């Protein structure tokens, strides 16, 4: 079994809990693994047995381990989502604060998507992105769907399925915001100009300019939302 790391901070029980959670996420501890005896585990962690017992009680309360009458502590059947749900406490943030968090994540993902699209986009990818621009330019077509497709096609050009799925999920979460912003007078036309600029940087391979254009585009959306 993976050796534990010595604990050196003051909040010993919390550090023990955090270390075991990390080991679960990294696959160093797996379902059904038996933890070392308390004496050995305390020695590896360099904590007192009372601090260790407090940590084990916390982990048991969280449902991450179970302590059996026959002796020993075992990792319960958990998947990564279960572990993450137990690590991340229920949010105390307001809807506005959570929305700001979402836009921060969007900025990170779409900036990286732009960079990778410049490196990996094919002629077919560029054609798809251009079709999304044509759709945005047509007042008879949905500006919301055109905007969503534009960003999705850039993510698809990265050839990274996880990034694509994350972009799609965030896009779904922002659908109502897109409707509000794109219905602002003149915003559709502004968005079309911004999208053309972004596409030009992909075609020309200008990473720095492209990333800045994408960030500016997202910041413009943030500003409009704040003013609504």
Give a summary of the structure in a few sentences.
The chain has eleven helices and two strands. By secondary structure, it is mostly helical. The chain has a two-stranded antiparallel ribbon.
List the helices and strands and how they pair.
Layout: H1 12-25, H2 38-45, H3 49-62, E1 65-67, E2 73-75, H4 80-87, H5 95-120, H6 123-137, H7 143-156, H8 161-173, H9 175-182, H10 187-204, H11 207-227
Antiparallel strand pairs: 1-2
Question: What does this entry look like structurally?
Answer:
The protein has 228 residues and is mainly α. The protein has helices at 12-25, 38-45, 49-62, 80-87, 95-120, 123-137, 143-156, 161-173, 175-182, 187-204, 207-227; strands at 65-67, 73-75. A hairpin with a 5-residue loop joins strand 1 (65-67) and strand 2. It is elongated, with a radius of gyration of 24 Å.
